[in-house]
Amino acid sequence: MSKLEVDWNALNALKGAELKRATFKTIQQAAFCIQSTQTDDPSLLEAVPRLTELVGRNPQELGAFQQLVSSLARSTGLWNYIDIKNADASDAFVAEAATAYELDGVTFHREQIAALDALLSGRNLILSAPTSFGKSLLVDALLATNKYQRIAVVLPTIALLDEFRRRFRDSFADKFNIVMHQSETSSDGPTIFLGTQERLIYREDLGRLDLTVVDEFYKLDPARRDDRSVTLNAAVYRLLKRSKQFFFLGPNIDKVSVAPDARWSFEFLKTRFSTVAVDTLDLKNIDDKRGRLIDEIGEDKNWPALVFVSSPGKANKLAIELSEKMAVSEMSGDFSAWLKDNIGRKNFLSEAVEYGFGVHHGRIPRAIAAHMVRLFNQEKLPVLLCTSTLIEGVNTAARTVMIYDKTINRDSYDFFTFSNIRGRAGRLGQHHVGQVMVFNDVPEQTELEVNPTMFSGDDNFPDEYIIHIDKPDRSDRSDDRFRYYRDRLELDGDDLKLASSIRLETSILIKEAVHRSLRQSDRLIWSNWPSWPEIKEVCDVFCEPQKVGAFGAYSTKQLATLINKLRQASSFKDFLLTQDASYPGKPEEQDNVFKFLRACEYGLPQNFALVELFVRQLAPKADYSFFLGSIASWFRPEVLKELDEEGVPIQISERYYVEGDDKPRLRERLLNECQSPTSQLSGFEREWLQQAI
User: Fold this and answer.
1) Helix/strand/coil (H/E/C) assignment for every residue in 292-306
2) Which CATH fold topology does 277-438 show?
3) CA 459 to CA 107: how far, in whole Å?
4) Superfamily grouping for domain 110-270
5) What is the pLDDT of residues 556-578, one digit of tens each?
6) Which residues contact 329 (CB under 8 A, 6 or more apart)?
7) In this prediction, what percent of the chain has a pLDDT beyond 90?
8) Which residues contact 426 (CB under 8 A, 6 or more apart)?
9) Three-state secondary structure call for residue 249
10) What is the model's pTM?
């Protein structure tokens, strides 16, 4: 079986007649290979985007070859590379047949059509395909058929939720009610439920579903060391029990393990089909890797560039170092000035942005992170420093990916993770040929088998997952484990599920700590607004078996103080500016306040709620509900938090909020303010809001 072998660097260096001869020979070789190699062979597939870019860059010498490249695209199945205007009739017909004009004229490739055929015939499908395959487009195509009326889409991050929400809103707002926030409810009509596993698992308005979509399905495997795996399995179990069909999407999976008696069957489609080509530059033997990284970041031929580092702290430190050494953009000054005025002048982010460097990791406030990605895609921020958030579906238009570190936090990543990071280089329609710079050894390539908990045998179910299984679906062993924790914790139903989200053994230790505290004082027995000592007592209790650092603080005293200051702040902006002015630590750790704010959204409410359950077992008059209803939205109206998740920073929306506003009313007021000649918004803020809303 022959393989297409081309020195693409040498070909790209040619000019004039020599370039024409070599290009024609390459097209000829590719045509011969089609007859003798697998149609998804990467060496053959990459010829199409490489030739497309080469012809586009040299129209005078190679313009006549466009029809030949279109014929090659048709033969390989990359129908989205057929130039309909210049292709011959038969090639153009194929492209037209694979084009969905109701989806802005997108043309599907052969493997996308194969996946759609399986799904539209009613089969459950698990799709494993490279990052650039165009998996999310398949979801749009399914919705456009009008076959599915109620759909649940499970996504790993809120950033992805907002990206999908925008896409669905633009294409299907007249067909579907799009529900993303807990405050939003569904009607009996066509509805798309968008959510992370933590949100969808508790929705009561799902009803019967026609389709459940799970993105990044490899996270169902607990071996991937994702703390949210149990909740994801439990949420998907609940969704699939009420769904007619499911569609799981993920990258670079070789097998999916299923127990013989598994409840659900499916078709597994694995493809190597990629729509972009990638050049890899091996820099592992460079003596001064840090110096070389900084040099490459400064080269505009590499922009827009994503730089992968192992942790938020390292990303922050690199941002500080780069902003001291160079400037790569003069188009982000307004954003930098806004950050100084709204999160603080000492925060490293404002200076990094001023010199053209964006930072993207789990601590960065969502509206700010979303705007950084937007400016990166517009090439106003040419460099984006990222952690593993890069591989969880943040869609960017990157020419180059620089993989500087070989770990995620302190754990070495495997070839699967490396492939997902590398797959972020290039983007169909913008950068047909991406570039990857690797500063360490590439992990050994091994076959990846995903073993979802929900597809495995009962004996392998973790206790936290068993808590979510309905009684008819539990084995005798599972039922014994369920009863053990129910009796030990004296909790049932949703209360027991809450304990499982924190971990059951941890919950037992928290219960014991509650009992010890109640024997010594009544500081856990409060209602409405707690005092600082009462907040600290709760923090002391749930941090006994857990690290306080997970909540963005160095001690329970500091954690209680942060909660109290956030509650007392006259505005969200004032809270951040006060924290910025008083921060005494290392610059790269200054964003710990953002880590605290993330903890307020989920981790802290969960722990406060669990402590309340145990307190009420002995002191029923305790009532944390008012406090719990406020901390998750940072003690601000819920509508402000929802808009922040949709890209509107609270620092702006809070200025225009009127008591009793719902989201449509506040959104309309913000839009009117953008258009008002007497608006108090800056020009930068107007542009931000217009893009976000």
Assistant:
1) HHHHHHCCHHHCCEE
2) Rossmann fold (3.40.50)
3) 46
4) P-loop containing nucleotide triphosphate hydrolases (3.40.50.300)
5) 999 999 999 999 999 999 999 99
6) 355, 356, 380, 381, 382
7) 92
8) 49, 132, 276, 277, 278, 398, 399, 432, 433, 434
9) strand
10) 0.96
